[in-house]
Protein: ATP-grasp domain-containing protein
Organism: Photobacterium swingsii
Amino acid sequence: MSLLKPQLPKIGMLYLDHVLRFFDRSNFQGWPDKIEQVIYHWGNDKQRFINEVKQKKIDVLIGNIPATAYETFRDIARALPDVTFIPSLDSQFSNKSKENVTHFCEKYQLPIPKTHIFYQPDEALAYLRDAEYPKIVKRSYGPSNYGGYFVHKVDTLDEAVRLFSERRYFPAYIQDFVPMKADIRVMLVGHQPVCAFWRRPPEGEWLTNTSQGGSMDYQDVPREVLDLAVRVSKAAQAEYWACDIAVSTKDEYTILECATAFAAFPYIRDWIGQYLMWQLAPEQFNKPYFADRNWEELGKVDSSLLRTMRHIQFGHASESTDTGEYAPADEHYSLLNTYHEQAEEWPSEAWNFQDMNKGKLKHSYFGQTIEQAKKNPIDGRDLSELNLSEFNLDTGIEDLSRLNNCVDDIQGGTDPQDTTDDTQQALVVEPQQLVKFFMSVKGIGHGLATEIVDTLGVDGTLRILNDQPEQLMTFRNLKQKKLDAILCQWRECELLN
């Protein structure tokens, strides 16, 4: 009599229109059953999405949720109590905003730059008037920093006021400036570091983003940085995780960013798939093994090859001495299972400060009406010079909903769709619209514009424009100057402001 194998949970890939897919079926090589996919189409799609998950009898939904959909998926997860979300909504709490990263780090006493968050402009101004400079101002909410384009160093009160008058970030997210010699990104699977690399700023600069001229290398990442990243991953109870850790000029370490959503080569996504298959069905899949500091050797491979390498596996070394004694295992970090709590750690009713405070916001700039602001000098300057317009917050949640405005301007004007769900609109973007956008940038012709869109597709092009614009420089004849022009045009389309 043959023994029946235990039934496997039914996996579904969680996808969203216009969002680059982190996983696909090939990352789960060897999973014997059909892997479903469920796509959230924005607009009024919440109930249809819930019904489709139920109809397909999905047990596990795997995929990252972008910041703009996070609160919607809090509701969806509550409506699907028998479905396991990987990563959990609690693990993805830090994905939503930098203010959430701050709350997370403060709760678990993790080192971060001293940070102040203000939901009322007059409170932010009161702080800035007495603050010591320089300060770092960041856009808290939204898909990403766009390669550092939403991180600003202000050296005076006047610079800070001018910045907020132009950008109107909400909330005001202000950090102490930490003189850095570099930062380090650490990627983890099952709380084990599987990749780590330095990002160093150009000489005389402070931003480390490669799109801003920074350099990167994989050698000699300090053990203390890896230990800190493991500690952060365990606090988040995340199956996979990434941390950006600042290294100050005094060799002190602070967390800049952390999330389950990060750029990763395909072989790392394969490793996450191996881990998740073992986690979901340990009777049928072996626990994967990732060699300690494997990145020091893999990092020597040209990045164009790393982007195509798949399903890399490591074997355990079995060293011994002539006397038959086995050498001790050199295993600094164990691959650990992760467990989700039944109760919500970060319920939106308690932690969605942005939406809770937006309704209470005074319609004034830094606590004054616009007319008062024009008359009252700050730091010896007349604020009428600041070109104060109607108070219009940059919450970071309008990016997708304004896409129609941009493509309409390029195309000649069409009526936007008016079906909304929270802050989102249902969007249909055609390849030719994106080609026309690129061709509107000086120095980009039809050939290069078509190559970009054909190579990346609509979803990939939107994702890279919004999240990883530096990747456009992998295309022929597209260097930093053209990238800056593309991003300038992207902002002028009111996608980002």
